[in-house]
């Protein structure tokens, strides 16, 4: 069963986030807390959304997503931040069902695309995504600004804005 996440799912979502990070060899980078996820997903103006895969009432997977925007299409899209299914539950259609639900939402709302990133070494996930018709966007490289560089640039922008 696939359903929208509820506030009571937050501990399970965080567990799955941590499991995904461990699989991706980056558990040490997880800083999110239950409070962070609860605020992002269920605060007064949520900016992120999640869907849950259940088996017999037990949470076995999730998809966490948010809206992006394509200036070329002139429409919103769905950016899939995380998709994860417990390893023991893989091969039963939960990942496909979660992606199908996001595709349904995108089509129903007139969004132009569903996109996500996958680690280059994650061959099982790449094969799964390609089996659904997804294609890599090899001509694009993801850049990220975080930590000290983010703070430094943000501070420089704040000074520039004050000078104007």
From TrEMBL:
Q: Which domain of life is it from?
A: Bacteria
The chain positions of domain N-acetyltransferase read: 1-160
Q: Which PROSITE patterns match?
A: GNAT
Q: Which residues form a coiled coil?
A: 13-40
Question: Which SUPFAM superfamilies does UniProt cross-reference here?
Answer: Acyl-CoA N-acyltransferases (Nat)
Membrane-crossing ranges are none
Keywords assigned: Acyltransferase, Coiled coil, Transferase
The molecule here is called GNAT family N-acetyltransferase
The organism of origin for this protein: Actinomadura parmotrematis
């Amino acid at each position: 069963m696939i359903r929208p996440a509820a506030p009571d799912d937050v501990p399970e979502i965080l567990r799955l986030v941590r499991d995904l990070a461990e699989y991706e060899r980056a558990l040490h980078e997880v800083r999110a807390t239950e409070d962070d996820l609860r605020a992002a997903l269920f605060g007064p103006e949520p900016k992120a959304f999640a869907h849950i895969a259940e088996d017999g009432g037990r949470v076995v997977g999730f998809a966490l997503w948010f809206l992006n925007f394509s200036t070329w299409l002139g429409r919103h899209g769905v950016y899939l931040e995380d998709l994860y299914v417990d390893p023991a539950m893989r091969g039963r259609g939960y990942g496909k069902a979660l992606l199908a639900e996001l595709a349904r939402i995108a089509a129903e709302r007139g969004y132009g695309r569903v996109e996500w990133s996958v680690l280059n070494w994650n061959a099982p996930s790449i094969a799964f995504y390609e089996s659904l018709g997804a294609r890599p966007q090899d001509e694009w490289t993801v850049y990220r600004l975080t930590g000290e560089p983010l703070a430094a640039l943000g501070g420089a922008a704040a000074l520039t804005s004050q000078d104007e």
